[in-house]
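Researcher: First entry.
Model:
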Amino acid sequence: MKFLNCTLTLILGLCTVNNGVLSQITTGAEVERDLLIVPTEHGRNYQEIYSNRGGATPMTLPFLDDFAWPSLFEESGEDRPELVRWDSSPVRRTETFSSNTPTIGVATLDGMDAGGYPYSFNSVDAHGWADTLTSRTLLLGGMTPDDEVMLSFWIQGGGIGNSPDEDEDTLIVEFKALGLEGDIWTRVWEQEGFESDDFIQVAIPIEDGIYLHDSFQFRFRNYGSLMGNTDLWHIDYVFVAENGVLGNPIEELAFREPAYSLLRSFSSMPWNHFADNPAFYMEDSLFIESNNFGSGPNNQENTGITIRHSVPGAQPIEFENEFIQNVSVPIGPFSTEFLATLLNESGVSDNVEFDTDLSDSTATFEVSLWQEEVGYYTNQTAAFDNDSIGFNQVFENYYAYDDGTAEKAYALDVAGGQIAMRYPLAILDTLDGIAIHFTPFYENAETETFVLKVWDDNAGMPGELIDTMYQFHSPMYFTEGYDLFAYYPLDNPVPVSGTIHVGFIKQNVERLNVGLDKSTNANVGNLHYRLGPGAEWQASEIEGSIMVRPVLRAGGDPIISVEEINEEQTSLISQPFPNPSSSLISFNNSEQIEWAIYSINGVKVASSFEPELGTVTVGVNDLCAGIYILSVKGSSNQSHEHYRFIIQK
């Protein structure tokens, strides 16, 4: 799980813009937010200079990128330069934000920088130039207009995410010419914002002599909201070739959507929970959609799935589909069932199942699905092409329904609103905390507060509170990457079993935007909310999966048991004070002691030996806000005490 550990308003509504006015479709007080704002118009500076942070070597024609492999400079620039098609940029490849994609993977231009943080968070002027995607240098020297060099690509506005707005947002293409004083970028095409479920193709001739040189480049730029994951443009199948040839795949089979899990209900779960009943938690069917770009029916061949335990020296285990080895498929989209009628490497009928003997704590498996195709770039070594897709099946210390990407946002639009996500646990465990992805857009809520809550189950609805929590937390946003989770420890570790509901109570009316994964749909039957104290719980009507995950002990040995924490032992030292604290804690010791401070997850963060009796003062300035355990051992090594204290910032 991608979460950073330093230590809702349930507003779910589809946001749309009509005649420049922001609106949202609500269900009660739930709102599914489309990650958009009403921008402030200002002059557009088309000559603004974009500075690359890196580049790749020149290449000859044809140029092709369908974004099915790691073609961005940040992904392959150092290790696999032959895969790179673009100079360094803040643009990301995505697989879940577009719809009806020609081939799996697109380049998505939005209002976030390379670290996943809005270009302008809570700015008065929140519209401007955002992302830029610049091609590698193309060697066009010596060519003439008669060579009919053509750039073609497919675009979509919005897809599953927020669409760029007409008259407000723009996607442009620029070509590079050479001038006496440096590069000259000229806008050769533009498209105003629009909303579409389908892709449309664009073709631009490269025929002017000022572009036919050996330093030619082209680039895409978007003008729109700078407030986050908004005004999305998706680009696919970028192609540059001679003789007027367009980027239309011919006689090619290509995946058009990803896979993310082989588990029945979850995208991830703790390994020791899975190992309790692996056959029950394994998915028994997996339908993946592909495209046949042939001029007629084409043959799908050599279809199968490969599993590899992600440890050094592990060998992949391959399964082939017994009946999909030479099957005719129609033109256009078609689906394949990848878990049915499988044969193992010995040719014996078998099912995919993760081997629980491989680990006793955590495990990760590399999963790939593949089919044979005809195309420009097939069978790339150590890089997925559009005839193969892959993901990591992760078993760590948390449960998750979501696939790790937030296409939209979920919040509650009322003070004191409560959300609760239902999780049926496989075995008894200790709940240490909750991981939440607060998606950064429009409202910066990092000064707002909420309190974590855990409820038992009452016929599928949240029941009684399992424990009382008092510590205030705030949304955390990160600049280290997209869709990161923040880990929030509970006030006390909580023994849990059966079905639990985890979530929080927000303090104020301001919206706390939780990531909403629209590629999965676990909210139905699992997500509940209520509009303040005393209100009735209501089942969510918003499709998707909110990105809230319970984090468990998951077989890890606790530093101490909950019973030990609560024991009243004061023979070695006094209670640490002040508690809570922001900078220092102190205690009085009655004999020589060794002490250590642990995070709630069992990580030692400080320790020392105190040979003298008296008052001990420890600086905690460098520790993140959260709950910590002070463990004290007497000189006889037989006395052992533990004290919980809180650091607040």
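Researcher: Second entry.
Model:
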Amino acid sequence: MNIRLLIWGLIGLGISIGSCFGQTHSVARKWNEVLIQGIRNDFARPTANARSLFHISAAMYDAWAVFEPGVSPFFLGQKVGDFEIPFNGFPYQLDQRSSLRNETISYAAYTLMLHRYQYSPGFVKTKHLMDSLMIALGYQVGYTSSDYSTGSAASLGVYIGEQINLFGLQDGSNEAGGYVDLYYSPVNCPLNLTLSVPNFLEYANRWQPLQFGSSFVDQNGNAIQSGVTPFLGAEWGNVVPFALDKSSKTDFIRDGHNYTVYHDPGPPALIDTISGNSFNDPYKWGFTMVSAWSAQLDRSDGVMLDISPASIGNLDINQFPNSPTDYPKFYNFMMGGDISKGYSINPKTNQPYVPQLVPRGDYNRVLAQFWADGPSSETPPGHWFTILNYVADQPQLVKKFGGVGKLMDPLEWDVKSYLTLGGAVHDAAISIWSAKGYYDYVRPISAIRYMATRGQSSDPNLPRYSKAGIPLIKGLVELIQEGDSLAGPSNENINEIKIYAWRGFSVVKNPINVEAGVGWIMARDWWPYQKPTFVTPPFAGYTSGHSGFSRAAAQVLTLITGDEYFPGGLGEFVAKKDQFLFVEKGPSVDVILQWARYFDAADQCSLSRIWGGIHTPIDDLPARKIGSLVGNKAYQFANQYFQAFGNIENNIIGFPNPSSGIINVTGVPIDSINDFLIVDPLGQSMKALNYLKFVSGNQVVLDLSNLSKGVYFLVCPTVNPFRILLK
């Protein structure tokens, strides 16, 4: 499974849109592929990307739902947050439904993306893809009329796109202001990465901006004209969610400003500067483990691992510890990885998984890069959409939503799965970033350098003792002695802290043919395994976005397929020898990442961020639990919209359904309108005529807003009862 390399290769070769996205793929899939490429061409903003994936998926779903009897759109004709999108119905002929639906989907996606990416640094490339797809589908580029009363499907699509764009301008994201924070301000001065100096971190538990030169380069390769990284999304808890509800919401006040936190994980582990617990302090243990795992990024250290599902994966969420004091029982501090034991057999084939022995350093480096989403990042939300698309392409997948019910055509599968996954990653971004913004927690690059600057916390009888210092670990974290190569020409570094870790960018003059390897370095110069222009994402560590996104997505894929396993019991990605890594040369052998379950892939993603030097265990496990809650809730919430609340007979269609009160019913035998009854949950009947708002052609609009919430039936002797849900 070479998901991203396949997509990049086809686009890079200039293959036509129709070929690139597959003639057999649905129109929604083709637009999703364009959207993912648009994300790669944009700034690397996981929060905004998750929001766009959700909004555009919802636009395509709504365009599909208009033509689907008995199901409800999400935005169209609904009130989401404080924003309501009016909709007066769209009569159509059944024999035109397929073509009208594809046209509406295309214009909705095009209109929304045109607005959303107009200021993207790669907008020219993205628009070329968008225009090319429209032309390949036979649609007019530049069509802007939103007057769908004319019966134009193109206008209906434009209307959907425009209205969701208007929703987005008031949803709390500050899209009009470039998504910048309105009141958050960091408490720490930046860490200057251009100098080899001690890190005087004033608040050791709080996030620290990074200072480059005159500009830094984001994960997508875009130069940001600022030497200091601003916090991205500190106030994202204010954004209107998909399925998150008030019961999972807590409001906090800090510095006079409100911070809304969903699924509050509680405060992270704070550094112990009183008792001097050293290695028993969860803060010191966690951040020191990040530096220890950095020592495992050398493929020549002689350690070989079986990275197949025979040895890795098969964790249950109940095995996740609840307290940081129990984390040492879950993570393997010295060797890396966790307590998972793998699978005795592939449950789909009843055959053992084939072992795959590779150097540990190759595996860890590939993980760090693969789950960081590559040199042109679609960021974790987009990455999981590529995995969803891969799963949808597997012949073993039976496209029954939840694994039950009727077999769906590709378009129905795509719009429903995209809405569900889009809603999940959007809510994961809100939940995870709401904690990031409020708890404002420190990253490993700051904490490791800070502790080393303070000294060592292991032995009061040794030099440089400090209760806030880093624990000493023989062979990993030590004091520099006289005669050490790091002592300096005048022995100025004697008793400073050194770390055995990945040696960093200064060693890699040419990443095409040079490996940095692992060795002793000054602790004040410790680096994550990332690009030198990126180093660490520009937002707080707690809680982990990768862990939250991945667990939520794995939960959704499990639920929508009705199966926790990848089709055939195996998902794969091939990282070719000396062709995959971009931080340095490598890997030294082909490395095939393999997963039996979606959760195995998610758990692997979480570990990758520790090997990559981006997250500590303190960031990881709470985010996995949040992601599980978010994914499950998103599936249950989305599934309400997919239920057919009415039967169809004589081409009767009702929408929106569920409804807040106004429901459009088309295909009604007008001459029998007097015979229609509204039946309440107690079986009492009322004439539908009493709730009639107006009649237009064969369309009847009923106003049921005065009725209590609940399930009602529209009953007539000539048709089957039509079920209505008032919400």
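Model: Note on the second entry: Residues 1-20, 645-651 have pLDDT under 50 and may be disordered.
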